Here is the input.
Amino acid sequence: MARYGASFVIGFVAGLRSMTACAALSQAAARGQARLTWIPGGGATRGLLTAAALAEMAGDKMPFAPDRRILPSFLARLAIGAAGGAALAGRDASLPAGGLAGIAGAATGTLLGRAARGGVTGSGANWGRALAEDAVAAGLAAALLGRVGRHGDALARPVS
Here is the structure.
């Protein structure tokens, strides 16, 4: 099960903040920590994805921000979780199983994140919870990047 811990966590991050997960995956690719070689890790890509993650965090607080549970948003989070889960699966782990762990993490993060936020997004009373969610997503992504590779995850057997 430990071989899929990073897979679940990147999916969970995708459920909370989808672009934060994308930025983390790009960082992992740049460091050679991703098993999927098609994940872009160039400097410009990392910069754009980091900017997109910050923009998503800001936009999430707007009253017009869509619910993350609407089908297109939910499916995007699941897809990011699947790709991230496969990319960060442990060295002896199955890529499809890593993808499934990422999907499970994304579904969990999406639903728990929404439940933790409460009823109305974009309201002033909700900002504290939204900022806490941002901190959890960024903190998990940073911790994951610090952990992957040092503990034998995702460095062996890259797959194109």
